[in-house]
Each structure stands twice: as structure tokens, then as C-alpha cells.
Structure prediction request, 423 residues.
Amino acid sequence: MAEIARRTTDKNNRVMFLIHRKEVLDQAVATFKNQGVNSNLLIAGMVQTLTRKIDKLPEPQLILVDEAHHVLAKSYQRILNKFPNAIVLLFTATPIRTGKRQLDEIADDIIVGQSISKLTKKGFLAPFDYYSIDDIDTQKLKKNSTGDYTNASMDEAVSRKIYGHIVSNYQRLAKNKQAVVYTYSVESAKRIADAFNKTHISAVEVDGTTEDKIRDKYVKQFRDKKIKVLVNVNLFTEGVDLPDVDCVIMARPTKSLALYLQFSMRCLNPRENKKAIIIDHVANWKTFGLPDSDRDWKQAIITTDKNKRKSNNNEPIFAITQCDFCFAVVKASEVKNSKCPICGNPIKVHTAVQQTDDELKLINDRKRLINEILADKVMQNVANKSVKELHTMKELQAYAKLHKYKRGWVFYQAKMKGLIKRK
Ligand SMILES: [Zn+2]
Prediction:
């Protein structure tokens, strides 16, 4: 972002940088300055602050939005609508929202960054082992209006045995590691911290009602390794700088992929010879796979209507399997000679067989698509174009086919381009 901003201010254009957490703002502004962004041409601020003084702001030519999965919120929209001529770049690690509306409502296209497994191979993220201890009856989970689970149903669904299990599995799998626990209620957070302290593992609980001063003190003690375990309720998700976390323990089920990735990836800051440990007590892997499972982000940003989503309910199939001996969740591709790659015991591989069928289907689908492209002039024609360069319905349809976009995308784009009349 800093590099894009630098090149923009070098050409005497103004940049606006939108962020939604104060903790990150100062750090980001310092980075921008270090990278040579002309600060006279930079408007950087928290969304809430900038919305309030929007009428006094000079017009930017470029707007950079951080944590852009929030961009459909009114405060962001107010700013973006005020400057319709600016080029807008949205940055996010999780370009998907839990509700019905997705980012295609305002984004023309998506540029997918490097995958988590690639970043891990290159050393930008730590490798991890993932374990699952099933302490939840997922049948009892009920969704609320935002699409995530209700607190009451999470309380119903989670087994009372979880408290003992969390401590014993931490000792078994992550002994002495700095750990962060994610849970769903203040009460459960307090019980988890108690269970650790009773076993003489220092733990504290923090939640939204914890005073800032006390929270900061705990975070500092955790950084100094005076506290081993930080138990929190929805606090350490995005934008908090909490390095040296080597273990994440999930006691909060979620329907939100963004939350799942924020939880599980909290322990992936790299360090020499580090192997992070993720312990999932609430079966989140069954919904989302592993943190580094491949995801179709292009599909994820497309808004579907409710009925379509129901009829088209193809939950992704992840080629992963669980070891009955050590409870590790591993990729089927890592299972060699039917043995668990973690503990060496025999492991079931029926998921792997299913994967082979899926892979075959995928290869056949791709072959078919390639043949279609070769046979179709319009498809060939749009292959190297950007969305902005598409001018006819036919081109939009070909582009959608090529990128596996749904029909809703074609209609939306056609409407935006005035190819079909708005209602
Ligand atoms: Zn095993």
C-alpha cells in the first residue's frame, strides 16, 4: 500500500488511507513516511474520524481501504460516495462477509494475493500442526441475523467437559507455549482461565468490559512471558499487535470465515524453527478446513440471493482427515502409506479417495473450459481484458464463464454499464 501511495503522491496526486483501528493507524502512517509518501498529499485517518469532517476534506485521486471487508458499512460508504472520481483499492485478508451481501456490490474485480501455503513456504508465516478435540454438539448451534451463531446456542452446544480438555490438551500438545484462547462468553472465559490457574499455568481473562489499562497490562505481561495463556472473548481478532503467540486454542464455534482465519492465524507470526499449534475444540475445521486450505476468493465476493444460496448449497469439500490416535487434522495429501504424518499411527484415508474423484472432476472441468475458450472467439477476446474493458453483454457473459462468476455478476455489471435498464 505504501508503494502504491508513494507512486501516487510522486505524481502530485492525493491519497486517502482509511483504517478502522487506532492501534494500526500510527504504525501505518509511520511506514508510509518511511517509504517516501509525500505527507502533504496524504489524508490518513480512522473511518469514524474522517466521516465526521468529510465536508472539509480535499478530494483524493486514490483511496486505499484497509481491512476492507468492513467497506459496506455506512461510514465507509459515506466517504466513498463523496469522492466518486477516486480510484478505490480495497485491501483485506478475508474478502468475504458472513451475511448475504458481498464485496462485488462495490468492487469491479478481485486480485487474489499469494496463498497461505505459499507464504508459509516462503517463510512469511510459521508452519503449524492442527488438532481437533470434539467438545461440541454442532446440531444445537443456531444462527442469528448476522449469520453467526447465537450466544445462547453456543452455550448449549459446547460440552461442560471442554474446560478440563482445554487444559489437558494444552499440556499434551503445547506445554509451556504462549497461548491465546478464543471463547464465546465472559463466563466461559473466566472458567477457562480458572482451570489453567488451578493447574499452576498462569492465565488471565480479557473481554470487552475489561478496562483498557488492565488489558494493556495483561498484554504486556503476556509479551514478557509472565503470563502463559490469554483467554479472550472476541478481542484479539484484527489489528492487534500480539507477537510471540505459539498456540491458539479455539473454544468458540463460528460461521464466519473471517473470524476463523483471524483466530487460527493469530499464532502464525514466523520465527526461526517455530511450529505453531492450533487446537480446535469446537469443530471449526469441519466448516472451514485448515487455515491454509485453498479457497475460491473469486467466488466468495459474489453476492447471491437467499434462495439461490439454498439450492446451490455446495459446502466446500476439504481433502483433510483426522487421526484417531493423536487427534491431528491433516491434509489427505500428507498421508503416506496410510500413516498419520504426526504420530505414525494408521489413519483412515477415505477422504483422500474422495479427493481423487474431486480432483479428476476438476481436471475434466478445466479441460472442458479450455476447449470452450479455444472454440469461442468472444471468450478468447476477453481472456486478457479487465472488467472495465468489457462493453457488451456477450463479453460480460464470456468473462463470467471464464472466471466462474455467477449470472448475478453479469446482471450487476450490465446494470452498472447501462447495458440493461435499472429498475
Ligand atoms: Zn496421529
Observations:
- The first helix runs from residue 2 to 10.
- The radius of gyration is 24 Å.
